[in-house]
Amino acid sequence: MRGDQLARQWRIIRAIEGARYGLTVAELALLEETSVRTVYRDLEALHEAGFPIYAEKVDRAKKWFLVDTYSFKVPPPFTLTELMSLWVYRDLIKAFQGTAFFDSLESLFKKVQVTLPPTTLAYLDRIKSTFSVDIKPYKEYGPYREIINQANQAALDCKSIEIAYTPLRTDKETIRKVDPYKIWFHDGSIYLIGHCHLRGEVRMFVVDRMKLVRLTEDHFEIPKNFDFEKYMRHRFKVMQGELYEVKILISPEWSRWVGEKIWHSSQRVKRLKDGSLEVCFDVAGLQEIKMWVLGLGGEAKVIKPDSLRKEILEEARKIAHHYLDDQSKEREVI
């Protein structure tokens, strides 16, 4: 298949790049578990695509190398395939469009574009036709460009900021002084994590619910005992709450799809005789995992905790009521 061929050629060029003393066609065939004839075809395709590869006889063996001084100069500390990987993954930056991060990354990709020859870029575009990277959903962060820039600079300078913040579940805006520890991109959204002076603890703020009031001259130090990974460890996504052990039964039809993914670092799975899957998590708060379970519909059943079972049941009743109510209105019209 075409996708397999491109993936194999990518691995071959990486193997040659990493082999200080070159590789023979036989060695490449062994690495790829394919035939010598196939490797020769791949090498020819890579050469035609503009890759700086050549063959040289070493100790009676013909070995393939990557040219060190090529017609284009790969800027240190990058390697050729690292630059190529950047080009293939350039679609990932769409989520940052309108921000300074996007501008800088776009500038980087333009440099990559002028560094790689047209034949190599054409080859990489062929790879993109079979391998695509996308982030959905994501927000438009252009309107928050200055907030992100200034919050990021304040975090770098260890200076406090004052923000007007509107939480998700209320329209009431509060003024808060925050020591910004980290800017974090997750699941299509940008967050600021820092010490909130109003609440007296580390909090997470959604950037698009922030309005920057002012940058202060007050300096802060991130506590030595603050560990971002530890801070996020028990959250199913971003929300925090009481710690629960959650056990969910996944139907045999959906057990493979659920079991193939890592949904949380605490995930534990057990396959049952009927083909179903028992999944356990230790999570802080139930709101986000409740939405995850609801997204699986009738393919998931909460075993514990009982409080989550009751919340799912209540949501199911609300959903059923919406549709039953619509049916009643339709009958009235008829």
Keywords:
single chain; 334 residues; alpha+beta; Arc Repressor Mutant, subunit A; SH3 type barrels; Alpha-Beta Plaits; 3 domains; 5-stranded antiparallel beta sheet; 4-stranded antiparallel beta sheet; CBASS_pafABC_assoc_protein; WH-like_DNA-bd_sf; WH_DNA-bd_sf
Summary of the model, kept short:
The chain is an alpha+beta fold and 334 residues long. The chain folds into three domains: 1-133, Arc Repressor Mutant, subunit A; 142-232, SH3 type barrels; 243-321, 2-Layer Sandwich (Alpha-Beta Plaits), CATH 3.30.70. 42% of the residues lie in helices and 25% in strands.
Q: What's the arrangement of secondary structure elements?
A:
Blueprint: H1 2-18, E1 23-24, H2 25-32, H3 36-48, E2 53-58, E3 61-66, H4 80-88, H5 100-115, H6 118-130, H7 145-157, E4 159-165, E5 174-186, E6 189-196, E7 201-206, E8 210-219, H8 228-232, E9 243-250, H9 252-259, E10 268-271, E11 277-284, H10 287-295, E12 300-304, H11 306-333
Antiparallel strand pairs: 1-3, 2-3, 4-5, 4-8, 5-6, 6-7, 9-11, 9-12, 10-11
Helix pairs in contact: 1-3, 2-3
